[in-house]
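Review form for a predicted model. The reviewer records the input and the model, then writes brief findings.
Reviewer: anonymous (R2)
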Amino acid sequence: MKRIIWLLLPLLVMWNSLTVLAQDAEKPADTEKTEKPEEKGEEKGEEKAEEKSAEAEPEKATLEKLAPGFTLKNTSGKEVKLSDFKGKVVVLEWINLDCPWCKAHYEQGDELVKQQKKLREDGGVWLTICSSGQGKQGNFDADTLKKRMEKVSLSADDYLLDADGAVGKKYEAKTTPHCYVIDKEGKLRYRGALDNAPARRKNKDLEAVNYVQQALDALKADKKLDTTETKPYG
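Model under review:
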C-alpha cells in the first residue's frame, strides 16, 4: 500500500501544477497595470511632438495662425526677436519715411505717434520695420535715419532693419504703412491698412476709421474683431 502511495505522489504533484497553470492562463491580462514605463514615456513624447507640430510657425503670415518669428537688428545694432515680446500684443508697421503716405502720417499730424505711445502705455509693443534695400527709397545711413526719426518724434519701441526683405516676404508686406496686429498668444489677428485715409481723401464726409486701433480695442476687451483684413495702401 505504501509503495502505491509513493508511486501516485509524483502524479498528484504534477496534476496540481497543471491546474494552477491552467487557472493563470484563464486570467485576463492587466495591460494597464503592467504598462512599461518606457512605453508610457514614448506615448507622451509622441503627444508633445504632435502638439508642437500643430502649433508650428508657418513660413508665411496667416490670419489666426502663429505669426512667423524673426530676428532683426535695430538702429543701434542690437538684435530684436519677435519672441522677445511673448505674452504681449504686438503691432508691426512697415515703414518708409520717404513714402508720401508715411510723410502724411508722421509729418502732417501726430495721431500715429500718439497711437504708438498709447499701445506702449497699455503694455503692448509697436515695431516699425523698414524693408528698403540699400540704395532704395527709405534706406538711410545711421546718422540720417536718427535725424529723421527725431524729426517726426517716432515713438515705436524699435525701428528694425530688414534690408534684404526676408521678413517682409514672410509677411507679404507690399506697401508702407502696412500693418499687422499680433495677439498675446502670438497669433496674427489683423493685417492690412492702418486706416481708411485714402477713402477719406476722396470723400471728405466719411468718418475716420483706424483699423489697427479697432483691432487693439477688441483684443483689449476680449471681443471678436469685426475687421481682420483690409487692402493696404502706400
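Findings: The beta strands are 71-74, 79-81, 90-94, 125-130, 158-161, 178-182, 188-192.
Further findings: DSSP finds eight helices and seven strands in the chain.
Recommendation: see findings above.
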